[in-house]
Amino acid sequence: MTKSLRNWWGRFLFQGRGIVPSKRLVTILLLLSVSIIILTVVGLDWIWIITFNSLFLLFSLVDLLFSPKKKEMNFTREIPHELERGLQYQVQIKVRNTSDYGCSLTLVDDVPQSFRKTFPIKGKLKKECNFTYDIEAPVRGDYYLRHLYVRYASPLGLWEKQMTIPLEDHVKVIPDLTETRRYLQSAQQFLLYDGEKIRKQKSGVGEFARIRNYVVGDDPRKINWRQTAKLQEVMTNEYEPEHGKYITILIDCGRMMGAELKDGNRLEKSLEAALTVTAAALKNGDYVGVLVFSKDVNVFIPPAKGMDQLQRILQAIYNVKVDATESNYSAVMNYLQTYQKKRSLLLLFSDVHTFLYEESALYYFKRLRQRHLFFMIGIEDDELNTTAKQDTRNVHHTMVKSMAQQQLLFKKREIAKWEKQGLIMVEATEEQLATVAVSYYINLLNEGLL
Amino acid sequence: MRNLFTGKKSWVWLVIFLLVFISISYFLISKQPQDYPNYVSDSPAPMGTKAIYTYLEQEYNIVDRWTHSPNLLIDNGSNQLLVMIEPIFIPDAKDMSEYIDFMENGNTIMLFQNNPHGMFDISTVPIATMQENTTKLNNNQGLEYEAFLPSYERLLTEEKDRVILSDMEGVVALERNYGDGTLIVANTPIWMTNEHILEEDHLEIIQTVFHHAGGEWGSILFDEYSHGTGNKPTVNTLYPQWILVLGFQLLLLTIFYIWNQGKRFGPIVTPREETVRFSNERIKALAAWYQRGKRYQDSLIIQADYLRIVMQEKWGISYRKDWEDITNNINQRSERDPKELKSFINGVSTVLTKPTITKQEYLLWSRKIDQLRKEVEDE
């Protein structure tokens, strides 16, 4: 096909450009048709019928001349380049029209398919105009917006011109950081949910941090009398647990982490909790490293401190996907033994069940325990718990129920067994995962175990 | 693949493939003869009449085909011969009167038709038996011809008609005057076909007929109009105009409506696959396995075990003790009738020690265990 022919073909129907008759045109044509048919009954020649039709179409096409040319319109898009999963964001499209004619615009943006959005957007355009729409991204990952699809109608609204404007944007959908932000805003409030207070000023624990004004509720034994005398104000010593500890967060993204929860899957929740713990630890001045693994180690970020590390970690793990393979704990252990020589807290986000079935890995962990502190946190399986409490209905149901009970029994026994050897495993509900993880971390530091 | 189909090489391949296809299709398709309708003057098929047409064309050089409506015939003046061989339908009244006008203007129509009843007021009479073989025909001068005559009809003559040919059954060809012109009718178009024209005395018969028609024509026309080229009833005559206009406008509307609705606006959307993994796949599989193996006993033991664990957690009744030993402990916590409870505990401990149990027993004891479990859990 020659180029011009292809151009025509594309213009007609199958590509993003060209002209489209509007609903109004079709309606008017319908009215015209009805009147022509009525006139035919009275007596009207074919020549007149064709003349009427073609005259109408010709005049409607004249209407097209009074709308802006394609080159006279200029579009820009403003979109946040990092979207948090499940939150609503606003996207703005700025339109500039340099022609003398106004028009009514219809826009459809090339937003990735998985996003929640409402298209098309409609509006009137004079000279300059801003259009906004809301998007919400339910799936993490990297996305590209490549085009903007525009239709605009002529003044009488009989025809619409359509064009596709190349407009590229790269969007990252990162985990939902609401919990992290809540922690950073007010750690106390965040942990109250769990029923625990941060005992930063636990007496006798940690090192001397600074001297500050005495406030009601402080331990009177900690009053620094020398400073009080000097400044004529009651001053008190403040102690804080030691900082500069190493924390390695292990995130499992194997097969079982893909199990669906009320909102998102296990991996989503684990990532969000991991980021909250990271933020908490970094704020405390600890070193945080992250390791994501399934069959092999997918991502490893060596420990570092400072709030930059949070960004670094976020950028490295925002696009982690659930792998279809079984997770290989031993491989991670080997890896850790070579790369994490300093004593650290190993915080493993995984599925407790899968973990318990890996006998060999558990022995590895036991050995690792000699050097590091280990804590594993999983998400409670709601499905399993409710199944175990079912009534007896028929044989199949009862079988399933008994199997669920068997799994629960197995889990209880195994957890008890390994806890004796110093491998602590906890299951939390999906809503409380982050709080449980953070409060465990704070407790550990307060106790000075690390 | 990419190398094969890009650049100059691909064009070479394309041309080669095309040539191969064309040659194959030439050999496959060209063997089949083309289909022609019967009695058409450009058909070389056995039932065509190209032979006589070509012969006349070479002889007289004034032969032509007529594919237009008969109202244009008169414009060519007089002294014309119109040869109609087996028209596939009888023209409507308008066309018919135009044919007659044409004849009255001093022209001749020569009609060969198996059953010419209805054409130009000619009437026919049916005969009882058709001659399978050749028959003898007589002309009005007493000459005899051998001819093939596969027709059930014979012509009825009127007063002024002149018989050209007849056989024992009746008139086979006749001549009738219309104004200044004449009409010649014969009931056997098969004489004119390529297949039969040279058989028997057909050629002589045709010559006789042509002879009757005169001889000095301005032009000889073979009527193809009556063979369907353009003279079929048009949609215009079949349907009232308003229906046609309705159809036309509907077509126009549909085009615009589809254009309005069908033009893609926005990105191309492809169906997206979503997979969801449920966490209960393990217990489902295990349950199916146990059920297939009819391991009701094992399942019951697990349920009893679970009950004991729950009791240990909630009521502090030791998991290690035997069922019989904990009757009192349960009695203290449970609101059930002690006798009923005792029978339950006795039952459980015996059922659990049985080597196999039936499905009914399994369900019964599962229910009983459930009752107690509910009681423990609800506290």
Automatic annotation (TrEMBL), chain A:
Q: Name one Pfam family in it.
A: DUF58
Top-level taxon: Bacteria
User: Where do the TM regions start and end?
Assistant: 21-40
Question: What phylogenetic lineage does the species belong to?
Answer: Bacteria, Bacillati, Bacillota, Bacilli, Bacillales
Q: Does the keyword Nucleus apply?
A: no
Q: Does the keyword Cell inner membrane apply?
A: no
The record's section on PANTHER family has: BLL2464 PROTEIN, SLR2013 PROTEIN
Q: Which UniProt keywords apply?
A: Membrane, Transmembrane, Transmembrane helix
Indicate the segments forming the VWFA domain, all copies: 244-408
Write down what this protein is called: Uncharacterized conserved protein, DUF58 family, contains vWF domain
UniProtKB/TrEMBL annotation, chain B:
Q: Matching InterPro entries, A to Z?
A: DUF4350 (IPR025646)
Q: Where is the DUF4350 domain?
A: 41-204
Q: Supply the Pfam families for this chain.
A: DUF4350
Q: Which UniProt keywords apply?
A: Membrane, Transmembrane, Transmembrane helix
| Segments passing through the bilayer | 12-29, 239-259
What's the protein name?
DUF4350 domain-containing protein
